[in-house]
Fold this sequence. Notes:
alpha+beta, five-stranded mixed sheet, 11 strands, 51% helix, disordered N terminus, oxidoreductase, microsome, heme
Amino acid sequence: MDPVVVLVLCLSCLLLSLWIQSSRNGKLLPGPTPLPILGNILQLDVKNISKSLSNLSKVYGPVFTVYFGMKPTVYGYEAVKEALIDLGEEFSGRGSFPVIERINKGLGILFSNGKRWKEIRHFSLMTLRNFGMGKKSIEDRIQEEACCLVKELRKTNASPCDPTFILGCAPCNVICSIIFQNCFDYKNQTFLDIMEKINENLKILSSPWLQICNTFPALLDYFPGSHNKLFKNVTRVTGYVLEQIREHQTSLDINNPRDLIDCFLIKMEQEKHNQKLAYTFENLAFTISDLFGAGTETTSTTLRYGLLLLLKHPEATAKVQEEIDHVIGRHRSPCMQDRSRMPYTDTVVHEIQRYIDLVPTNVPHAVTCDVKFRNYLIPKGTTLMSLTSVLHDDKEFPNPEVFDLGHFLDESGNFKKSDYFMAFSAGKRICVGESLARMELFLFLTTILQNFTLKSVVDSKDIDITPVISGLASVPPPCQLCFIPV
């Protein structure tokens, strides 16, 4: 068939589908005209999808549609909060993410849907709380790990170092204590290997190539590329998780569950006659992998980016350390009760999270049914994003592209809350480990600054704080710094 005829047919089919969508009791969402097959991909910067969407919102308004390949995606600007919270149930689906779907087959907690997702999310949240998340017991565990972190940083002898893996080990050990009842020495080779795989996977998932693969999933089968490395890394991490599960099976005491794996195995036995199984061996493996990876990489990347920003803004670092000296001193460990008396430090933590916008387009949501939203009809299954629009809203945060502590600090020096602070997402899909991450970020960062002066190997004005990748996550540039004991 003549290529021109094929092109015309494709375009006709696309226009027909758009016409059908617009005629179903609602207006068609505005947006740039998509090309056949390609959609709007050529109008987007795959190195920074979030920025491209933000620019388009200035043209088409707060709610519009872009096509990633042949799938519509709605980008909400001011509308994100209204959608995720006010219409939380309707917007609680997980949007299409073909690369991950190839790996986990819709299992686990992060990328699952429907009743199975609700069941596993509820189980995970309750179990994490039972093992101390948000309570004093997990605070004690984080403080203990913070001491280990300080000891490891002292071993650098104030020499220039890249703290990526050291900063990753601390939150990883905290989540390991909950799901595996097991912690690692920071030099353990298995530990370092898994940390390396998790760190590498975040970079791959955020790369331009993976954005293209998610748009055109057929590429995964026919082209070489970093997705194959991702699949290999996931197999390695999942293999470790399966080893842990098998060990737990052999030593399980149903009357004395030690960790999340034990609790899941007990639930599996209780639910074995349920025809719609959520509690399966395979689902356990992917749920643990999700908690393991997310509980490690998000916090460690935020800490790493936070230290980079503090190097860039030494005046802010000095004020945090002054507050630490005044409220805590040098002879006891920071605790969560200190936070209410440390508004400047609390502000710095919040502004770090707002500024770096760790997951800029959010892990994609989807509508679970046809929904009327702002006089538009959004069809069931439509993918939605983004959070950048909220964290960088210029009405709520003047000069949103600038690291400005005035965003969370009032004129009297008091911390001011903002409903626009959605660093952990919002609504039904809000991060399961939010309270744990909040504790970790405050305690780890405060403990580091209590014990060390940060010194850059270059002048602060020459420090580049631009993310090297901004896809699924914003990944900070590598950084060498010195941790000088105080």
